[in-house]
Design brief:
Helix content is 42%, strand content 9%. With 223 residues, the protein is of the alpha/beta class. The chain has two domains: 4-19 and 95-222, Rossmann fold, CATH 3.40.50.1000; 22-90, DNA polymerase, domain 1, CATH 1.10.150.240. A five-stranded parallel sheet has the order 2-1-3-4-5, sandwiched between helices. Helix 1 runs antiparallel to helix 4 and helix 3 crosses helix 4 (72-90). The longest helix has 19 residues, at 72-90.
């Protein structure tokens, strides 16, 4: 069992952990689903959490039974259209959109000498971090374009540790989605889930909200 004293680095997901851009993703994907004629359901909305743009698009097209109606080129165009819509919403973000307790948690990690990286499937992470005023904390960001597989595959969290020059067992990954927790666990890291035990049943440590995310609380949970 990994001890708290073994931990040297923290690897963050973005959506639902640092800020809640999922509402913007949902709005943009919902509009696209309407355009292609796929009925919007709660199951579909939940299924899109934490996965890449093209995987999300294919899930929407499959759900509507319209995958064969579009060429690969047209699919890329649809994904770009969704992204433009999403970015127009993201551009209105400010530091007020940082989730409760996250800025304080990041400050405590820096002052205690922990390494920090970002493991988000979103290609727009740098834009979002900039809008939130958090770029200085994340000099280490996994490039989604360098990934072969999306979450729940462990690759993104493995790379999150590699860019910090740390072993997986020295890292804690923080996620709000089931696919993300699976990715952290698969990478051999300690998983911290933000949300409910119903959804994140495999998380090593669970907090109801980001406000509970403190070094002291993690230490208590691990020891």
């Amino acid at each position: 069992m990994v001890k708290f004293s073994d931990i040297k680095g923290f690897i963050f997901d973005l959506d639902g952990v640092i800020t809640d851009t999922s509402v913007y993703h949902t709005e943009a994907w919902h509009q696209l689903a309407d355009k292609v004629g796929t009925p919007w359901t709660q199951d579909l909305e939940d299924g899109l959490k934490g996965i890449s743009r093209m995987d999300s698009l294919n899930m929407i097209l499959d759900a509507g039974g319209v995958s064969n109606n579009y060429t690969e080129e047209e699919k890329v165009s649809l994904a770009n259209e969704k992204n433009d819509r999403y970015l127009s919403l993201v551009n209105k973000m400010t530091p007020d959109n940082i989730l409760p307790g996250i800025k304080e948690f990041l400050d405590s990690l820096v002052s205690n000498g922990y390494s920090i990286s970002l493991a988000s499937a979103s290609k727009n992470s740098p834009t979002v971090l900039s809008k939130l005023g958090l770029t200085k904390y994340f000099s280490n960001v996994v490039d989604p374009a360098s990934l072969t597989n999306g979450k729940p595959d462990p690759e993104i969290y493995q790379k999150g540790a590699q860019i910090l020059d740390l072993k997986p067992e020295q890292c804690i990954g923080i996620e709000d989605a089931e696919s993300g927790i699976e990715s952290i666990n698969g990478a051999g890291e300690t998983s911290v889930g933000i949300g409910s035990r119903d959804t994140l049943k495999d998380a090593d440590i669970l907090f109801a909200t980001t406000k509970d995310l403190t070094l002291d609380n993690i230490k208590k949970a691990m020891n």
